[in-house]
Amino acid sequence: MPYKWPEKKKVIGTSVPRLDGAFKATGKAKYSFDRNPPGLLFAKILRSPHAHAKIVEIDLKSIETFPGVKATHLIKGVGAELKYGGDEIAAVAAETEEQARDALRAIRVKYEVLPFQWSEEEALKVAPEPKTDEVGKVEDGFAKADVVVEGSYSCPVITHVCLETHGLVAWWKSDEELLLYASTQAVVKTAADVKGDALFKTIPNLKVTCETPYMGGGFGSKFGPDIQGIAAVELARKAKRPVKLMLERDEEHWAAGNRPSAFAKVKIGGTRDGKLVAFDALTYGTGGFSGGAQFPLPYVYGPETSRRKHFNVSVNAGDRRALRAPGHPQSAIVMEQAMDDLIDKLGVDPLEFRIRNIQKTGVFPTLQPIYETEIRLGAERIEWKKHWHPRGDKTPGPLKRGLGCALGTWNGAAGQAQASVTIRPDGGVEAACGTQDLGTGTTTLVPMVAAEILGLGVKDVTGKIGVSSFPPAGGSGGSTSCGGVSLAVGVAAMKALAMLFEKVAPKLGCAPADLRAEAGRIVSSNGKSLSWKDACATLETQPIVGIGDRADKEIQGMSGVGVGGAQFADVTVDIETGQVRINKMVAVADCGLVMNRALRGAAPGSEDRPDAQSGPRVVPGRRALGPSGDRGPSARLSGARGHRHRRAAVHSGRGGHRERGGQRRRRSRGRPSVLSAADPLGPGEEIRGVP
Amino acid sequence: MKKKTRRPAKATGAKPGFSRRNFIQTVGIAGVGATIPLMQGCGTTESGPDIPAEGVGPTPVDVALNVNGQDVRIKVEPRVTLLDALRDHLKLGSADPVDLTGSKRVCDRASCGACTMMVGGKTVYSCTTLAIEAQGKEIRTVEGLQENGTLHPVQQEFVACDGLMCGFCTPGFIMSGAACLEKNPNASRDEIRRALDGNICRCGTQIRALEACEKAARRIKGRR
Amino acid sequence: MKAFTYKSAKSEEEAVKALGPGALPLAGGTTLLNLMKERVVEPEVLVNLKAIRGFDRIEAVSDGLRIGAGVTLASLLENPAVARQYPAIAQAVETVATPQVRNMATLGGNLCTRPPCWYFSHDLFACAKRGNANTCPAREGENEYAAVFANEGPCVAVHGSSIAPALVALGATVRIVGPSGAREIPLEKFFTLPKDNVLRENVLGNNEIITHVSLGKPNAKSATYVVLHKESHDWPVGLASVALEMNGDACTSSKVVLGAVAPLPWRSTNAEAALAGKKITADVASAAADAAVQGALPLSQNAYKVQTTKAAVKRAILIAATGKWA
User: Fold this and answer.
1) What ipTM describes this predicted complex?
2) Is B76 exposed, middle or buried (0-12, 13-18, 19+ CB in 10 A)?
3) CATH number for region A32-114+161-255
C-alpha cells in the first residue's frame, strides 16, 4: 500500500521553534571545534608555499623533539608534486596550538619550483577540447532575430567561508574504536571514508563513528574527512591521544574548496514580439587545478536555437567544491545579464519576456505557472510597476536607482535516507536518522514528522540525528535532506504505528485498519480509544522499531523534484563613487510542502553581490591570496547594515510535491508560507522589510 | 555622509572659546544615561596583578581572569589570546573544568565578531586580546548572559525570531546586541544595526538577528 | 605569533625604558597582534601602554583639546566636544572598522597603523617595507588599493589611518616622548614617505611613543567624507577631510587633506587654492575636487581612486560649508 502524508496535518506545517535554538544561543551547543577531550593534542598542516612544485627534500625527524610535539605525519614525500599554493605536505601534533605552529615553521623542505599557471586567460589557450552542445542551428535563429546583442559576462572564484572551519577531532577510544567529531555535512560518509582509507582499512574490526550534532556551515564544501581529517586520525593513532585539527581561516581559502569562476562571451537574439530565438555562448571557468567549472546554459529560458561551447580551465590553485546550487549562480549571472541586455535593446517588458521564454522541456512546463505566480508576487512586493524604468535613471544627481529580476531553478530530489522510529512500552518515542543539521533545521524536522504520524506533540518524541551509527542517510547537499529524511522518518513512523495497531486492535475489539492515531490517543472507529501511554503499555516489555527507507518502492507521491524561484532587487548606485546599495530584495521560492513555519531560512543575496565576494586573489607564483590580513578573511561578506531592506515572500506553487504519476494538490495561491527546512533558494515567511 | 545623532548636551551657556569649566559641565551632563566621568579615563584603566619590570614570559605564566563573575586561573604563554585561553586552556588538565567554548574562533583576525566578548563592559574581539591583558577586568561571555537559568532577552528573541541557523555566529551577535541594549535600552533600529556592524553571518540570518535585538529592546523596556 | 616577553608600563618613562630593539609598544593591538599572527612582525618584547597613568584622558585645554594617545576610538566618538567642535574627526572615526575594533583601538595606535597592503601583511611575500630592498609585489601585482600619489616607490601602499587626514586638516600636533625627552610637532610632519625610510611610516624612533594629540581651536566647518564599498568594516577607497575658514559666505582659507591615496595623509594645496576667496558652491567644490586629483599617477588597477577622491573632496567641502553635499 503506498505511503502518503496525512490529509490534515497537525504538526507538519506549524511553527515549531528550533529545538536546538537555546543551545546555540547560550553557547552550550558543542561544535567539532569546541571538543576538548582529556589529553587533547592540537595539530597543524604544512602546506606548499608555491603554486607548483616538487618536493626534493623534507625533514620531519628534526621536529619530533620540538617542544610539545607528540607526533608527525608525512602526507606527501620526496618526489611528490604539489599542484597549488596550499597543497598539503605534512602534519604535526603538539600539546598546544602555539607549539604546533612553531614546530610547523621549523620543518625544512626543499622544493623544485615548477612552471605554474595562474591566469585563466592564459590557461584557456591550453585547455582541453571544449564540449559543445547545440539545439537547432543558431545561424537560423539569429537570422530571425530583430535584435542581436553581444556581451561578456563573468564572475570570479569565491570561497565558501563557512564560519566553522574544516576539520575534526579524532579520538581513538581503543585500538579498534575511533570517534570523530567532524565538521561535516555527511556524518555517514565521513566515517565511511575514514574507515576505508588506505591507512586504516586493514585494521580488523575497526569501528568508526562520526558524531556531529552541530556544525558551523558547510555550503557544499564539507562532505568527508578531507586530507586534514585523515592526517588528524593518523596523528591521534601515533600519539595515542585525541587530536584536534581545525583549519585556520587562510587555509580555508587556499585548500577547502571554492566556487569556480565563469567567463562567457554571449550572443543572444530576440524578436520584438517577445521571442528568444538564438543563444550562442563561449564559456570557460576554472575550478582550480582539476579544472572543472561547468555550469548549465541556456539557463531557465529556452531559446529556439542555441549553441554552447565550454572550456574547463586548470590553474595552479585550490580545487573546486560544490557551493550552494553548484553551477547555477554562474548560470544565472550569465544568462540573466544577457537577457537584460537583449530586453533593453528590444524594448520589451522584462517580466513578460521572461515568462514567455521559459524552457518547454523537462520539469519546466510544470514550473511555468509557478514562475508566473512568483513573478507576479515578487513584482508586487518590490513595487515593480512604480519603480521600474528602462535603463538610465533620469533622476538628477549621482544616485541612480533601478530594479532587476532573475529566475533560478534546482532539482532537490529527496535524497537517500533511512530512519528508525522506536515506540517503547512506557510511551516514549525516539526517531533516529544518521543525517545532519547544518542550520537547516533537521534537528527539529525529525521529531516533527514522527509526531505528525503518531498523533503526538513534538515534545513527546526524542529526535536523534548527527551520529553515523544511526540509520544511514546521505550527505546534506543539493537540497536533498529534508525530502529524504522526512520520507524515511515518516515511513518509519507509519510502520511502527502499524505494528502498534496490531497490538492495540484486539484490546479495542476491532481490526488494526479501524485504528488511527490522533491527539495523543489511539482511536478506533467503533468509538473506543486508549491514551498513547496505555496503548504503548500493550507492548509489555518489547519496544517496537519501525524502519523507513527512502528507497522503499511504496513511497510514491510524497516528494517531488524540480523547483523554480524568482528574485527581485532594488538597487541604488552612486555613479560618482561606484558604491552599490541594495535597497530591497524580494525572493519568492517554490517550496512545496511546508514542514516548519518557524524556520525562516537565509536572507537573499548573500553571495555574488558587489560587496559580498570572498574570492582569493591569485598571485603569480604563489598561493591564491586569501582576502586575509588587512582586509579581513571574511572581507567581502557584508555586515548588518549591508542587509537593509529584505522582504521574502514564499509561495508554495505546486502545493504538494509530486513524483511521476502521483497526486497533485494545490495550496491556495498567494498565501505566503514558510520554507521547508532545507530549501537552498532562500528565505522563509514574508517578513516586513527593514526600512 | 550621515552624522551620528547625539543627544544634545544640556545648555550651559557655553560660548566659543570654551573654558575648561564649561567643558566639565557639559561633559558631566551629556551622555546617554550612563555616567561619564568628568574627564574621560582619568587615571589608569588597568588594575590587576602587577607585571614586574623585567616582564613575564615567554614561557607560560599564571593569569587570573574574572569571567562571568567567576575567578579563573590558567597558565598560558603571553602570546595566547583571551579567546584561545578560554576555549582551549581552561579544561586541559583541570579537575573541575570550566566550559567556555561558546565564543567561537572564525577569522582570528578581528574581522568577523564570532569571538565577541564584553571586557570592562565593552564589546571586544577576544581573538585580538591577549589573555594577560584581560587580567583585572570584568570579562563576560555568552555563557554569562543567563540569569538563574533564564535566558537573556536577546537570547530569548534569537530563539523566538529564528535569528540563527548554523549558530556559529550567534554568540557573537548576541553579545553585540546585548551590549548595545545594556548601554542604551532605547537604541533605535539604526543604532542597533550599527552595533551589529562588527558581526558577520554566512548563513544569512542578519535580518532576523536585527529583528531579534529590536524585539529584545521592547522586552527590556517593558520590564522597566 | 612568535613567543614574546610581556611588559607593562605604568608611566611614559617606564615605557621608553622598556622599548628598544626587539620591543614594540602594544596599545589596542588591532593592528599589531594580527601582524604578529601573520609573523610579519616578530617582537621579542611587547610593552603594554594601556596602564600608563592618564594615557586615555581627554582634557579641555586653554585653546582646544588634548587627547591622550590611549584614548580609544569609541571614546573619541562618544565625546560630545569632538562631535560638536571637530566634526571632521567624528565623521572619520565613525567609519573606522567596527564597534568592537573602535572599543579596542587607540588614537595613537591608529596614527601608527601599518599599511593595509596584503603583500606587506603576509610572510609569503618579500616586501621592501619588511626589509627586502627594491621589492614591491604590489607595484606590478594586485594594486587595486594602492596609492595614486607619491607612489614612485619603494612602497606603493597607502597610509591606513582614516583619522589622520582630519587631524592634519585641523592642525593637530603630537607629543612624542623618547630617551632624549619630549617634543611636540605638527602632525603633518609626523608622517614620512617611503623614499625617506621605507621601513617606517613616521618619525618615531625605536624607543619613542606618541603620548598626546592636541587640537587647537574648534572648527565646526570641518568635515570628512569617506567612500567605502561596504557600509561597515572596510577600508576607504576615497577619503577627504576639509577644514574651512569662512568669512561670511566666502572661504578665506582651508585645509584639504586626502586619505587612501598616498603613503601619508595627502595635503592638497591645489584644492585649497581653488577654494581661496570663493563662495562655496557645488561648482566651486567640483573645481577644487578636480584640482585635488591633479598629478595623480594611477597604477594598473587603481585609477578609479581618481574618481572616488574627487567625489570625496567635493562632498566633504559641501558638508563642511553647508552641512550636506546634495
Assistant:
1) 0.96
2) buried
3) 3.90.1170.50
